[in-house]
Amino acid sequence: MAKSPMKAVIPAAGLGTRFLPATKAMPKEMLPVVDKPAIQYVVEEAANAGIDDVLVIIGRNKNAISNHFDSVPELEVKLMEKGDTGRLERVMASSDIADIHFVRQGEPKGLGHAVLRARTHVGDSSFAVLLGDDLIDERDPLLVDMIAAHERTGAAVIALMEVDPASIHMYGAAAVEPADDGEVVRVTGLVEKPAAEDAPSNLAVIGRYVLPPSVFEILERTPPGKGGEIQLTDALQELAAAPDGPGVVGVVFHGRRYDTGDRVDYIKAIVQLAADRDDLGPELRPWLKDFAERL
Predict the structure, then answer these.
(1) Maximum mean pLDDT: which of 79-83, 192-196, 274-278
(2) Mean per-residue pLDDT, 25-30
(3) Is residue 276 classed as helix, strand or coil in its secondary structure?
């Protein structure tokens, strides 16, 4: 994958209250998914899309995230002395994925506020935002298609996925109209967590965005919205409604996505990813079948 001048922003300042007490002292982004913390999958996704500059927005008690992406010489020496090259390579890989930077959000005031904290680092270029609760399977690239859609249209790009209409109340829902590309739709409006009967579609917004730098100016003047927080959705609404701008488009994703923000879905993500691995699947899959038969 050719390197992209685009930078990636990963908001990681949330408190992770749904996973207490596990997240009392450990950031939720560091919870393991098989044998890697969730946030490493997200950084790897950005790197696989050609992005080698990643800014992570952190809050208090999130130092474990920056420590994870640092080198650990004493551990590396021990593994080298043991001749454990497999584990040594995996440990060192987390330090070499990308050029990773950190900035504090301070008081968590919503996703829009977290994105705004990236303004100085991003500058006047378009950038990608990847939320750590959504893991996209590396076999089903999404971000590459979103970057291509942005370069082609100049629009802000959001990732959309069809969900059961009964579940749309858990997501932002997009009102859309067809565009020239069958997998890309024009977004005319967004509704945050609507009731099923009020949803404009069953296309849910999932945690990937490619945004123009003009979004920062909008976020600067966006007042707190739902929950008293600055909502990125409000800024996207303004971009979509601008008569003279390129607007907002959505890339409809049909691949594998794992939600690690919910306890049950987090467990499902671990099982699915482990079952698909060559080193774990052959032993795990027969056990899962036997276990399911005993339920």
Answers:
(1) 274-278
(2) 89
(3) helix
Fold assignment, 7-261: Spore Coat Polysaccharide Biosynthesis Protein SpsA; Chain A (3.90.550)
Secondary structure E strands in 81-131: 99-104, 127-130
134 three-class SS: strand
Burial class (CB in 10 A: 0-12, 13-18, 19+), 272: middle
Q: How far is it, in rounded angstroms, from Cα 13 to Cα 66?
A: 13
Q: Identity (one letter) of the amino acid at 174?
A: A
Question: What digits encode the pLDDT tens for the residues 96-117?
Answer: 898 999 998 877 788 999 999 9
Written as one letter, the residue type at 93 is A
DSSP of 202-267: SEEEEEEEEE-THHHHHHHTPPP-GGGS--HHHHHHHHHH-TTS--EEEEEP-S-EEE-SSHHHHH
For residue 269, name the pLDDT band (cuts at 50, 70, 90). Answer: very high
Q: What is the pLDDT of residue 171?
A: 87
At 48-65, the pLDDT tens digits run: 999 999 999 988 778 889
**Three-point CA angle 79, 80, 86, nearest 5°:** 65
DSSP 284: H
Interhelix angle 73-82/85-96, rounded to 10 degrees, is 150
Cβ count within 10 A of residue 110: 23
Burial (CB < 10 A; 0-12, 13-18, 19+), residue 27, is buried
Q: What is the DSSP string of 139-154?
A: TS--HHHHHHHHHHH-
Query: Is the pLDDT assigned to residue 26 strictly greater than 70?
Result: yes
- Residue spans of the domains in the chain: they are 7-261
Q: DSSP readout, 65-92?
A: HHHHTS--HHHHHHHHHHT-HHHHHHHH
Q: What does the angle CA 191 – CA 263 – CA 266 come to, to the nearest 5 degrees? A: 90
